[in-house]
Hints:
Blueprint: H1 10-15, H2 21-24, E1 29-31, E2 49-60, E3 65-75, E4 126-128, H3 142-145, E5 167-175, E6 179-182, E7 187-197, E8 200-207, H4 209-214, E9 223-227, E10 230-233, E11 245-248, E12 254-258, E13 284-294, E14 298-301, E15 308-317, E16 323-329, H5 330-334, E17 343-352, E18 358-369, H6 374-387, H7 417-422, E19 432-443, E20 449-452, E21 463-466, E22 469-472, E23 477-479, E24 483-486, E25 488-494, E26 497-503, H8 505-512, H9 516-522, H10 526-536, E27 540-552, E28 555-567, H11 570-583
Parallel strand pairs: 8-11, 16-18
Antiparallel strand pairs: 1-2, 2-3, 4-12, 5-7, 5-9, 6-7, 7-8, 9-12, 10-11, 13-15, 13-17, 14-15, 15-16, 17-18, 19-25, 19-27, 20-24, 21-22, 22-23, 25-26, 27-28
Amino acid sequence: MGDNPCSVGALRTAFATDLPPAQVVPNPILQVLQIKTYSSSTECPRTIPCRVVRYCALYSSDDFNSILIIIELQVLKELGTRDKIGTPTGLETATVGQNSAPAPQQEVASATSFYGNKPPQPQRTLAVGGTGGGGSGYGRDAGAATSSSQVNVYPIEAVSPYQNKWTIKARVTHKSEIKNWNNQKSEGKLFTVHFLDETGEIRATGFNQEVDTFYEVLQEGQVYYVSKCRVTMAKKQFSNVNNDYELTFGRETEIELCEDDSVPKVNFNFIQLSDLGNIEKDAVIDVLGVVKDVGEVEEIVAKTTGKPYHKRDISIVDASDVLVRCTVWGNQAKSWEITPNNVVAFKGVKVGDYGGRTLSMLYSSSMMANPDIDEAHSLKGWYDGQGQRDLNSYKTHAGLGASIGGALGRNEPYKSLAQIREENLGMGDKPDYFTTKATIVYIKHENVSYPACPKEGCNKKVVKYDEDSWRCEKCAETYPKPQYRYIMTVSVNDATGQAWFNCFDDVGRLIMGKTADELEELSENKPEYEATFAQTLCKAFIFRCRAKQDTYQDQTRVRYQVMNAAPINYAVEAAKLAEQIKRYHM
């Protein structure tokens, strides 16, 4: 580079135009002359050359200030420190632009002049904030907004609160539903969109009047010119977009449809399902999987507000041989149309740890079925060749790598029965949860099941009304016969001790290998009835349990309720034990 590695004239050129920095002087090399406030670190000493990778040049004609906002900087240590190069002087306002080509003048956009004067081009549609218009949300006819000067398009990564004369050209990759709120302070509505270009993404939000103006204008998949939005620091608790800033639509905001298909359609950063164990709880990520199973729509009621919500659980797998449950909500749950064996890409889903590692879609999440990307084609090829098999053959993050049959517990070490007592689990005000591996040694034969209401979702005990009918007091209905459900009490052992576990119907069916109705029919044949119990003994399971204090006949004790159970996957358990043994040799 010689004695002078700096990009001579770069600063003057950057401040002499309204064009984005990357189009004017990409990656200029500058010398650090003064550092006003700096820590004791010597990583960037004075007089060392630096390469400015990303920056924004701001010039205000009102107060004659020139500010260079450096976003990303590379210290060129290989060039070493050196004496001040040349005789640099301050960038005088009066001289800016004298030695460089004049920048194209950009007119202030107005109702009749959008982005200045443009050369004749096909008619486009413009939406302008503050018009108060309803219906489709298009503010004015595009013909009146088309003029004859070229738009200076800024990359999304250069948008910041320090620059207000910008226009981005970006694709809408996500548009939320309209959300209404009503509290003591205010009421209103809002919606959000995600904009994407070659350099990154940014989130934009519209409130109240801007919802009426822009909601129907902005459509997923379309490309738009966007300008005159308010730029603020991103509220990370509401956003999963990787950007420190976000946009807010206002009365002056201008949005224009752009017929340009060169803008990227989507920008994913996929995490393999097998790596979810290394991802922190509540992190927001992108995943790609094949739909393996689609659950039914369920309605739940929020405890705090009493508001009903719809949810649906989707099981997805990928080439890492792991299955994960993803929950979708609201209208997406009710209108789910993606069938099993199709590839689906989820963007911005939240990582949970309920029953292992799970995923959940957020208000700002989005999904795409069978996306036309290389990763999706590769995954589909793997699934068609190797992935079309039973659910039980897949691993999960539950129970430290147990199969789906053992999809229980969080990603935590097993506790021995002795540890459960030593740690006083269940003795506090709130219940404790734990996962343990134990062997069934005895099952109480008395009261192993009860006659329940056959109506779906009831499960209340029914009483015999007469010889041919059973009555449910809750439903106030009579049925010809009940549906028996398990309420088993089992004794389990491990190498450290013994405990009594209580099991409900799902776990009882897994342990007994038959339904409670089938077992009840065997009760008249005592030898076969006893043989069924004997077959369950000495079988090991992984149990996910809740420990909670219970008072019965003035005696307080800890009750262990089995939430889930699964048989041992010996191949997985052996691999886990081998891994633990290796740690002793590290």
